């Protein structure tokens, strides 16, 4: 017996199931809930998603993702306190923001140095970060990279690249577990690591 | 310190968090994954969702939800075997289809009888079901309602309403736990209950 599924609904379930945390069964359940609230939830969600898919871009200053040319953090004059926090990706930036412990701006690397994958300093925007020190009068660059081999290799490269600038280089200190990724840490740990930061 | 969130992205996270099985944290993680795959996943998902939100409707024959006027099950001549299975909602219809044990068609009640909520036979399409027996030459109506008080009250009402028709009335037998909802049963249990169905 052939399954008699609606092609449009099945296509939607199949796409939903690709989201992290949603398997085929929970994707089906989510779509059922959407089908029951087509006007109040499904249509607005589709519209919000289309809007973000169309307008989201990398902030040209820091690499954060936002629907504006300049992300809200770079656009906020109150965040120009001379501090820039370097993170691997947007997930880590969001984790820092959730911790609510940092009032400066960011540099999102978008990865770590990897000769094998052809990821060099230019791909990570490191020359652009070095220029920002002079242009924005940065006094401190905080390296908030994971305590992994790749993260620490990249941190050392950054420290060298920034050595000739007037900015002080610091790094997150206690609290970041070895091999641990920032995005999985609780907010308190991130805040403590930030407050106890040390010269790199 | 004010949080510096992108309004478009935050609106999307807030809507995603309303889906069953996704809390605020997993909604954020899902949106991050979408942001990282804007072209390959986010845009197609938004489009599929908008299409379904716009075109999904109740099948005018059986009450199943589909993007066509006539759902794929009612449109498939191979499913016209004289059997109709009565279920409470679309989730139960999907559960029956997953069990892959039934080759007939459906009648989706959309609820159970409830004087308190003003849900009567007409709201559940019961006169329409009675007409289908003659029009489609149905030989059997299988009542696949939950073994709850509301489900069984509705089942008895259905048996009375269909008593004067030539169709045999049966109901799912063993395997449906008392108080259990169909949608949460495993496929094997549903199949066994269907095969062991008895006269109502
Ligand atoms: Zn920015
Ligand atoms: Zn139908």
TrEMBL record, chains A, B:
SMART domains: TOPRIM
Tagged with keyword Nuclease: no
Highest taxon of the lineage: Bacteria
ZnF (C4-type) ranges: 59-74
InterPro entries recorded: DNA_Rcmb_RecR, Rcmb_RecR, Rcmb_RecR_Znf, TOPRIM_dom, TOPRIM_RecR
A Pfam family hit: RecR_ZnF
Domain Toprim: 82-177
Record flagged with keyword ATP-binding: no
Gene3D superfamilies tied to this protein: 3.30.60.80, 3.40.1360.10, RecR Domain 1 (1.10.8.420)
Record's keyword terms, sorted: DNA damage, DNA recombination, DNA repair, Metal-binding, Zinc, Zinc-finger
Family named by the database record: Belongs to the RecR family.
Function: May play a role in DNA repair. It seems to be involved in an RecBC-independent recombinational process of DNA repair. It may act with RecF and RecO.
Protein name (Swiss-Prot/TrEMBL): Recombination protein RecR
Organism: Pseudogemmobacter lacusdianii
């Amino acid at each position: 017996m052939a399954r008699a599924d609606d092609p449009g609904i099945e296509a939607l379930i199949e796409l939903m199931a690709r989201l992290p945390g949603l398997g085929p069964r929970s994707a089906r359940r989510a779509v059922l809930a959407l089908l029951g609230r087509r006007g109040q939830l499904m249509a607005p969600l589709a519209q919000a998603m289309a809007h973000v898919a169309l307008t989201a871009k990398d902030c040209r200053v820091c690499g954060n993702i936002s629907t504006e040319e300049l992300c809200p953090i770079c656009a906020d004059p109150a965040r120009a306190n001379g501090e820039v926090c370097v993170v691997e990706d947007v997930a880590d930036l969001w984790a820092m923001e959730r911790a609510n412990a940092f009032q400066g701006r960011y540099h999102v690397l978008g990865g770590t140095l990897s000769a094998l994958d052809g990821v060099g300093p230019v791909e990570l925007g490191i020359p652009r970060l070095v220029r920002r020190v002079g242009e924005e009068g940065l006094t401190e660059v905080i390296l908030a990279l994971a305590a992994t081999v790749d993260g620490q290799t990249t941190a050392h490269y950054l420290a060298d690249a920034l050595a000739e600038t007037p900015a002080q280089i610091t790094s997150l200190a206690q609290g970041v577990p070895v091999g641990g990724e920032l995005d999985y840490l609780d907010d308190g740990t991130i805040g403590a690591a930030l407050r106890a930061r040390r010269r790199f």
